[in-house]
Design a protein that fits this description.
about 100 residues, about 65% helix
Length: about 100
């Protein structure tokens, strides 16, 4: 008896599910209209200028003295970190003004 009741329940559930799916199949969903992204050239130019100034500043942080064992420029150990931090802080402040 329980098998018959379970089979009837499964058939009834399937019929309800198929009815709901068929009812939803006829619906038309309109997509949300997307606006094209705009490019603010003033802000972009300002930020690019900030980046350029920061790179020029960071270039001054690199010592031109050659270490005796290598041929690559080395950072001055006492001022390299402070110089880099100063340049990146100036860059952040500059970009916040844009």
């Amino acid at each position: 008896m329980t098998r018959i009741a379970l089979a009837a329940l499964v058939l009834l559930s399937s019929a309800v599910f198929v009815t709901e799916v068929a009812a939803q199949a006829g619906q038309v969903i309109n997509p949300v209209p997307l606006t094209a992204p705009t490019l603010n050239l003033t802000t972009t130019t300002c930020q690019t200028t900030c980046d350029t100034q920061a790179m020029l500043c960071l270039n001054t942080c690199v010592s031109t003295a050659v270490a005796p064992t290598t041929t690559t420029p080395a950072l001055a150990p006492s001022t390299g970190g402070a110089c880099n931090l100063s340049c990146t802080t100036q860059q952040l402040v500059c970009k916040q003004r844009c």
